[in-house]
Amino acid sequence: MKVLVACEESQAVTIAFRERGHEAYSCDILDCSGGHPEWHIKADIRTLLKDYFDLVIFHPVCTRLTNSGVMWLEKRNLWDDLDRAIEFFNLRHQFNSPKVATENPIPHKYAISGIGKYNQIIQPYQFGHPERKATCLWLKRLPLLKETNNVYEQMKKLPKNQAQRIHYIPPGPERARLRSKTFPGIAKAMAEQWG
Fold first, then answer.
1. Are 183 and 147 in contact (CB under 8 A)?
2. Strand order in the sheet with 135-140
3. Where are the alpha helices (DSSP H) in the chain?
4. β-strand 135-140 against 100-104: which pairing, if any?
């Protein structure tokens, strides 16, 4: 399959699909950090909307859409930012692909009114990582992702700052990038089940 992983600089999902023999490419406005620049398209994703791919996995920026940041919309008057984020998220309807998966954290009610309800919520602990990080999936012509290695019981025994490591990443210039990386177990499940 020809696969586009949109807004992915880490190449976690791209690598998982490449390991299964697919022609997969990451695309981001940032340089890739996954070690395979030959598989990376450094561009705004909007320049690729007309290019055909068998599958697109889209990771739009979540800053204004996520439930955890809803309080800032009113406090900082970020409503125009929200409108732009919804418009970007809805590029998922414009990809020239029969199958599209879009992932993001749990959205707030204002975002849902513009992007629609998700099909599924997954957690890293369902795919072998003893951590929590609720991730929603909006799926077009794709099955729900099935868990592969549930380690919930193991995770329950960990201190909160380990089980919710992503949440506890300190503020700083790298925080958003580190929090946005796809867990390898989830990437592998996507490649195995959707590839």
1. no
2. 40-42, 23-28, 2-6, 55-58, 100-104, 135-140, 120-122
3. 12-19, 71-75, 79-89, 109-115, 152-156, 160-163, 175-179, 184-194
4. antiparallel
Token pair for residue 82? 């929200």
∠ CA 183-95-27 to the nearest 5 degrees? 45
Residues 79, 113 contacting (CB under 8 angstroms): no
**What gap in Å lies between CA 74 and CA 9, rounded to an integer?**
31
DSSP 52: B
- The token pair at 36 is 């395979």
Radius of gyration for the alpha carbons in the chain, expressed in angstroms and rounded: 16
pLDDT per position in the chain (195 positions), as tens? 999 999 999 999 999 999 999 999 999 999 999 999 999 999 999 999 999 999 999 999 988 999 878 888 999 999 999 999 999 999 999 999 999 999 999 999 999 999 999 999 999 999 999 999 999 999 999 999 999 999 999 999 988 888 787 776 677 777 666 666 899 999 999 999 999
pTM of the entire predicted model: 0.92
